[in-house]
């Protein structure tokens, strides 16, 4: 029956089975999910009761920490709310054990509140002064709270188990239903798929035989089974009709293909002078043959043109440019080849232009560089010589400054000694003035003594005159005495003259003594000024000494800098010499580059030469 049944009708069986199974699943799921949702809601309410119990006990703890009426009322409110919630929860239960747990929990809450009210009133009145009165109540509250917690947790655990059992039952039912559905689908699909697979296998065997023939795996074709009236039978009849037509066409196609294979093999080896001559009733293949022949001819012409261009490039003539055909495919191989060859030509021309421009520029620059390096060599050598002279001069200046510093130090020592000597000279001038005073006094004494001597000489002269008179009176007897008197007179005269000379000398000595005294006073004043000048000179000498030391340090630093600059100048001179060698090599290389580029022919060469020469 299924053999002649259409494939669409066979496949439509699967949606019918699927809809039937879905209806059954929806019915079972609707009945079970209501029960599961009810159990889940009851479980959530049980969790709320556990949370309310925890809040109530926390409020008791807060009341114990901070005793006041508000905290007490909060405890009572929490436990009364918990009692009401348990009563509402009990109405949703059906298991006697759980209902009994709810009733016992409500009784425990009532007892707990009574004990709490008693303890709270005592605690509010006595304010923790008599703990023994409500310690027993606290212990009872703790035990009741523990029992209440155990009952609510047991109730919660039992509710959770009931919910889990409901979910497990729903899962089991759906699993069994799924297994049955899979089994039904498997049986139906196996039966229908075997029927379809059998038809497909028959059709496949026929097509496989035809394709083996097409693919040269077999030299005969088996006809397809077209005995059925379904889609496969219809297709088999059409295929059998076309197999005969295709078989005749294939024979002709093979002749064209064989000849095309020979031609394409030669084309692949670079021979474009042979074309495909065979014909076939297969018009697309004929068109393909003609297109291949046209491609061979066109490709040959294009390659010959490309070869002509490349031959020009081989001969260093880069002026020809390869033109793309108007029918060339955008992005095609030929367009890319033309574009690539032109880009190659542009790159080579650009490279040659750059080489020519760079070579000529490098040639001019190298010549300028050689000249500048020569100037740099001369300047470096001159600078090095100047720096050597400067360093030598600085060495001499440094030595001179050091010598001057030492001389200034020595002058400072001498200035101190001159100061001491001047002080001694001032003291000696004072002593000299004192001595002059003493000399003046002694000269005055000498004057007095000279007056006495002058008087004695005068009296002696008178006596000698008297003695001469007496000797003359005595005659011959007094001649000897007269001689003595004459000698005495002469002695008196000489004594008077000597006294007069001594007086003159003493007067002169007195005059000179006064002058010496005045000079001593002037010397004392001069020594005073000399001491002041020596002190100022000593200050200046110390300042000069400090400046000389600073000059010595500065000149030493300048000398070090000049020495370093001299070393760098020597290095620069060495580098300039090496740079000259490099510049000469660069000049030679640039001339070779220019010569080599000028031997090649390309667009823009003359413009570059004129442009470079005009600069």
From TrEMBL:
GO terms for biological process: chemotaxis; signal transduction. Residues 117-144 form a coiled coil. Keywords: Chemotaxis, Coiled coil, Membrane, Transducer, Transmembrane, Transmembrane helix. GO terms for cellular component: plasma membrane. The keyword Transmembrane applies. InterPro entries: MCP_chemotaxis (IPR051310), MCPsignal_dom (IPR004089). The chain crosses the membrane at residues 12-29, 174-192. GO terms for molecular function: transmembrane signaling receptor activity. Residues 358-587 form the Methyl-accepting transducer domain. Pfam families: MCPsignal. It comes from the Bacteria. PROSITE patterns: CHEMOTAXIS_TRANSDUC_2 (PS50111). PANTHER family: METHYL-ACCEPTING CHEMOTAXIS PROTEIN 3 (PTHR43531:SF11), PROTEIN ICFG (PTHR43531). Belongs to the methyl-accepting chemotaxis (MCP) protein family. This is Chemotaxis protein. It comes from Aliarcobacter cryaerophilus. The lineage of its organism: Bacteria, Pseudomonadati, Campylobacterota, Epsilonproteobacteria, Campylobacterales.
